Amino acid sequence: MKQMTIREKTEELEYQIFSPYASFSRESRGRDRDEPQCDIRTVYQRDRDRIIHSKAFRRLKQKTQVFLIPEGDHYRTRMTHTLEVSQLARTIAKALRLNEDLVDAIALGHDLGHTPFGHAGESALNEVCPYGFAHYEQSVRVVELLEKTGEGLNLTWEVRDGILNHRTAGHPSTLEGQIVRYCDKIAYINHDIDDAERAGILSETDIPEESRRMIGDTTRKRLNTLIHDVIMNSEEQDHITMSEGMERAMLDLRAFMFEHVYLNPEAKSEEGKAIRMIQELYRFYNDYPEQLPEEYQNLMTKRGEPQEKVVCDYISGMTDLYSIRKYKELFVPQSWQT
User: Does the CA dihedral 134-136-140-145 come out positive or negative?
Assistant: First the structure.
């Protein structure tokens, strides 16, 4: 009798401990390109590992979350946001007996396509590119095409579906994807409050009294309240949800953050400069595509990808500091650079 591999034992264990609503590794819809199974890791464990080892993931550490190149070591970056989403999502998945590995892979990959300078960079490219630009679509493009010099990471369908649908208007097909969709909002609302208080833009007493009463008056209390609410209302359900009152309170807090932080002139005073810089880079590389790195030129010549999309691929993959360096290189005379 053939001995079971560690992966096969793990897959069998899932049927013993997971909720019937979980995404079982053995039942994945698979990858675009078939490949031999690992003898140790399940398909979702492999996807998580591929994302962590990708170049796009490493670049997240130097991409803006909300505050552009802040003075201080403790502000969130796109990387720390990603890790916080993963941590919250795994907590919920474990409590609901869902697939933590799938949740982890989706969470770690959900922002791989984000531009430098946060949503300012995303808006800048969306304004000038005839194909439009959305970071959730770009994240899928990163894992399907851009990583590994045009080969992509060949992730499972479930991970790619979760990445694409993590946005507010998304509809993830798995409960694990639905968890990440909630946790993305829970994470950024709370850590952005923390960063805004650190920057002196908000104080705890600025937050509406009803929000503080309903959700909590510290980051720890708010996270605890929201995570508990998701778990208590989703247990033994075929979908992930929050209580109506708590979800409304969370969305009211999100609206408050848009008014007082995300669209606050003081918090966003440098965004206009970032937008102009990104758009100037876009125009330059569209006028001089031969200046793109070889791997991006190959996407056009060998894969037939539209030039405008490839220019977006290159710019959106830049870190904040790299885009500034390229801008100086291209537009600032050498003698003026310090």
Answer: positive
Nearby residues of 223 by Cβ (< 8 Å), 6 or more positions away: 88, 186, 190
Question: SS3 for 137-193, per residue?
Answer: HHHHHHHHHHHHHHCCCCCEHHHHHHHHCCCCCCCCCCHHHHHHHHHHHHHHHHHHH
Mean pLDDT of 56-72: 84
Tokens matching residue 65: 């979350």
What is the pLDDT, as a whole number, of residue 134?
Answer: 98
To the nearest 10°, report the CA torsion of 128, 134, 139, 140: -100
Three-state secondary structure call for residue 31: strand
Q: Does pTM top 0.85 for this prediction?
A: yes
Quick: pLDDT tens for 235-255.
999 999 999 999 999 999 999
Helix axes 307-316, 294-301, angle to 10 degrees: 150
3-state secondary structure of 1: coil
**Amino acid of residue 162:** G
| Euclidean distance between CA atoms 194 and 269, whole angstroms | 19
Whole-number Cα distances in Å, 151 to 141, 211, 295, 319: 11, 46, 11, 22
Nearest to 134 by CA among 115, 117, 156: 115
CA dihedral 162, 164, 172, 174 (to 10 degrees): -20
Please give the full DSSP string across 63-104, using - where no structure is assigned: SBSSSSS-SSS-S-BHHHHHHHHHHHHHHHHHHTT--HHHHH
The pLDDT tens digits of the residues spanning 133-172 come to 999 999 999 999 999 999 999 999 999 999 999 999 999 9
Helix/strand/coil for 297: helix
Which residues on adjacent β-strands are paired with residue 31? 156
In sequence order, which residues have a C-beta less than 8 Å from that of residue 70 and are 6 or more positions away? 195, 199
C-alpha dist (Å) from residue 308 to 177, 221, 277: 30, 45, 17
Kindly report the length of the chain.
Answer: 338
